[in-house]
Amino acid sequence: LFSKYDLDKPQLPAWQAGTVTPQASCAGTLVGQELWKLVVADTFVSIAQRFASTLFFYKLYGRRVQLEVVQSVLGLVYRQGLIWVGMIFCPALPLLAMLSNVAYFYFYLK
Predict the structure, then answer these.
(1) CA nearest 46: which of 109, 107, 90?
(2) What is the structure's pLDDT at 76?
(3) How far apart are CA 89 and CA 42, in angstroms?
(4) Could you give the CA distance from residue 90 to residue 96 in angstroms, rounded to a whole number?
(5) What is the pLDDT, as a whole number, of residue 95?
(6) Residues 6 or more apart in contact with residue 19 via CB below 8 angstroms
(7) Helix orientation angle between 93-109 and 27-61, rounded to the nearest 10 degrees
(8) Distances 88 to 32, 34, 97 between C-alpha atoms, Å
(9) Low-confidence residues in the chain, pLDDT < 50
(10) Which end of the chain is more exposed for a tag (fewer CB within 10 A), N or C?
(11) pTM for this structure?
Protein backbone atom coordinates (compact mmCIF):
# COMPACT_ATOMS: atom_id res chain seq x y z
CA LEU A 1 0.00 0.00 0.00
CA PHE A 2 2.77 2.43 0.94
CA SER A 3 5.39 1.15 -1.49
CA LYS A 4 5.24 4.40 -3.47
CA TYR A 5 6.44 6.42 -0.48
CA ASP A 6 9.59 5.73 1.49
CA LEU A 7 8.31 6.34 5.02
CA ASP A 8 11.55 5.38 6.76
CA LYS A 9 13.31 8.51 5.55
CA PRO A 10 12.51 12.04 6.79
CA GLN A 11 9.84 13.68 4.66
CA LEU A 12 11.21 17.03 3.50
CA PRO A 13 9.95 19.56 0.96
CA ALA A 14 11.35 19.25 -2.56
CA TRP A 15 13.73 22.23 -2.17
CA GLN A 16 15.28 20.62 0.95
CA ALA A 17 15.46 17.05 -0.34
CA GLY A 18 19.22 16.83 0.10
CA THR A 19 19.46 18.43 3.54
CA VAL A 20 18.65 17.20 7.03
CA THR A 21 17.27 19.71 9.52
CA PRO A 22 19.10 19.59 12.86
CA GLN A 23 17.03 19.15 16.03
CA ALA A 24 18.15 22.51 17.47
CA SER A 25 16.55 24.50 14.64
CA CYS A 26 13.20 22.70 14.77
CA ALA A 27 10.31 25.10 15.39
CA GLY A 28 8.81 22.92 18.13
CA THR A 29 12.12 22.79 19.97
CA LEU A 30 12.49 26.56 19.83
CA VAL A 31 8.93 27.13 21.11
CA GLY A 32 9.47 24.64 23.93
CA GLN A 33 12.72 26.33 24.94
CA GLU A 34 11.11 29.77 25.00
CA LEU A 35 8.17 28.57 27.09
CA TRP A 36 10.59 26.86 29.49
CA LYS A 37 12.47 30.17 29.85
CA LEU A 38 9.19 32.03 30.43
CA VAL A 39 8.14 29.70 33.26
CA VAL A 40 11.59 29.90 34.91
CA ALA A 41 11.70 33.70 34.60
CA ASP A 42 8.13 34.00 35.90
CA THR A 43 9.04 31.88 38.91
CA PHE A 44 12.08 33.95 39.84
CA VAL A 45 10.36 37.29 39.25
CA SER A 46 7.27 36.22 41.23
CA ILE A 47 9.32 35.01 44.18
CA ALA A 48 11.52 38.14 44.17
CA GLN A 49 8.48 40.42 43.91
CA ARG A 50 6.72 38.55 46.70
CA PHE A 51 9.80 38.67 48.93
CA ALA A 52 10.38 42.39 48.33
CA SER A 53 6.76 43.37 48.88
CA THR A 54 6.49 41.23 52.02
CA LEU A 55 9.68 42.71 53.42
CA PHE A 56 8.54 46.26 52.64
CA PHE A 57 5.08 45.66 54.16
CA TYR A 58 6.61 44.11 57.28
CA LYS A 59 9.03 47.01 57.77
CA LEU A 60 6.27 49.57 57.17
CA TYR A 61 3.46 48.08 59.27
CA GLY A 62 5.22 45.52 61.46
CA ARG A 63 2.98 42.57 60.52
CA ARG A 64 2.83 39.84 57.92
CA VAL A 65 1.08 40.12 54.57
CA GLN A 66 -2.17 38.21 54.08
CA LEU A 67 -2.76 36.01 51.07
CA GLU A 68 -3.80 38.12 48.10
CA VAL A 69 -6.24 35.81 46.33
CA VAL A 70 -6.73 37.88 43.17
CA GLN A 71 -3.01 38.30 42.50
CA SER A 72 -2.30 34.63 43.24
CA VAL A 73 -5.11 33.41 40.97
CA LEU A 74 -4.00 35.65 38.11
CA GLY A 75 -0.45 34.37 38.43
CA LEU A 76 -1.65 30.77 38.46
CA VAL A 77 -3.89 31.31 35.42
CA TYR A 78 -0.98 32.88 33.51
CA ARG A 79 1.33 30.04 34.45
CA GLN A 80 -1.32 27.43 33.64
CA GLY A 81 -1.78 28.98 30.19
CA LEU A 82 1.95 28.69 29.57
CA ILE A 83 1.86 25.07 30.68
CA TRP A 84 -1.10 24.08 28.49
CA VAL A 85 0.49 25.66 25.42
CA GLY A 86 3.98 24.37 26.20
CA MET A 87 3.02 20.81 27.10
CA ILE A 88 2.89 19.94 23.42
CA PHE A 89 6.40 21.21 22.73
CA CYS A 90 8.11 20.43 26.05
CA PRO A 91 6.81 17.37 27.95
CA ALA A 92 8.87 18.24 31.07
CA LEU A 93 7.16 21.63 31.45
CA PRO A 94 4.40 20.39 33.82
CA LEU A 95 7.05 19.07 36.20
CA LEU A 96 8.83 22.43 36.15
CA ALA A 97 5.53 24.22 36.71
CA MET A 98 4.68 21.98 39.66
CA LEU A 99 8.03 22.80 41.27
CA SER A 100 7.47 26.47 40.43
CA ASN A 101 4.07 26.50 42.13
CA VAL A 102 5.43 24.72 45.21
CA ALA A 103 8.27 27.25 45.46
CA TYR A 104 5.90 30.17 44.87
CA PHE A 105 3.56 29.22 47.70
CA TYR A 106 6.34 27.98 49.98
CA PHE A 107 8.02 31.38 49.91
CA TYR A 108 4.65 33.02 50.39
CA LEU A 109 3.86 31.08 53.55
CA LYS A 110 7.38 31.13 54.98
Answers:
(1) 107
(2) 85
(3) 18
(4) 10
(5) 92
(6) 12
(7) 0
(8) 8, 13, 14
(9) 1
(10) N
(11) 0.69
